[in-house]
Design goal:
alpha/beta, GTP-binding, glycosyltransferase, two-stranded antiparallel sheet, EC 2.4.2.9, globular, single chain, uracil phosphoribosyltransferase, about 230 residues, Rossmann fold
């Protein structure tokens, strides 16, 4: 179960910092990790994050009959929910969500920063038509400055989703991004596997992981003389 970080109670849920999780982070943070190692190991962490995010959704009582004829007084997730991936890096988290909930609906939001102004601009949004009635797991592996996250949250609230029904799931989170989301949308909860030290002058997290999307999709690879690896 995720732990709530001190000072932002019930807002930021940090995965337990176990030796196993630190070992996984050691692999994906290594600049020499190949793409297969990076994707496979990131996927293991993403699965943990998804499970922790689901834990924050409302549950309702649900009874079942066991094979020996007894009643088990169990639980199931109550209201409907969906995933929304912030393209492109957020698409890396879809498989982790589908591995837990195969039939889950997943929407897409594409937001890109203007290279000159550094301001986020919405280019595309395709969401379930009934999203206002759903809880939302907002998927993006990196929460850096918070600009893209705030823009995506704005899209969701603009479609009628209350901010207290939004759970952001991030692999890494910078303190600056957390503070930005908390200031603008205090009802949004966040799940992360690491709160980083800070951002550098280029808005990269420290100690960081580099560009997650490039490393996941292989677009950081340099073609060899024999062709694309």
């Amino acid at each position: 179960m995720a732990h709530t970080t001190t000072g932002v109670r019930e807002a930021v849920h940090l995965l337990p910092q176990t030796n196993q999780l630190r070992a996984l982070h050691t692999v994906i943070r290594d600049r020499h990790a190949d793409r297969d190692q990076f994707v496979r190991t990131s996927g293991r962490i993403i699965r943990q994050l998804v499970e922790a995010g689901l834990e924050l959704l409302p549950f309702e009582p649900y009874d079942v009959q066991t094979p020996v004829g007894r009643t088990y007084h169990g639980l199931r997730i109550g209201p409907p929910f969906c995933g929304v991936a912030i393209a492109r890096a957020g698409e890396s988290m879809e498989a982790g969500l589908r591995s837990v909930v195969p039939a889950v609906r997943i929407g897409k939001i594409l937001i890109q920063r203007d290279p000159a102004t550094k301001q986020p601009h919405l280019h595309y949004a395709k969401l379930p038509t009934d999203i206002a009635e759903r809880h939302v797991l907002l998927l993006d592996p990196m929460l850096a400055t918070g600009g893209t996250a705030l823009a995506a949250i704005g899209v969701l609230t603009g479609r009628g989703v209350p901010e207290d029904r939004i759970v952001m799931i991030n692999l890494l989170s910078a303190p600056e991004g957390i503070a930005a989301v908390r200031e603008r949308n205090p009802g949004v909860r966040m799940v992360t596997s690491s709160v980083e030290e800070r951002l550098n002058d280029n808005a990269y997290m420290l100690p960081g992981i580099g560009d997650f999307g490039d490393r996941w999709f292989g677009t950081d690879l340099v073609p060899t003389a024999g062709g694309t690896p």
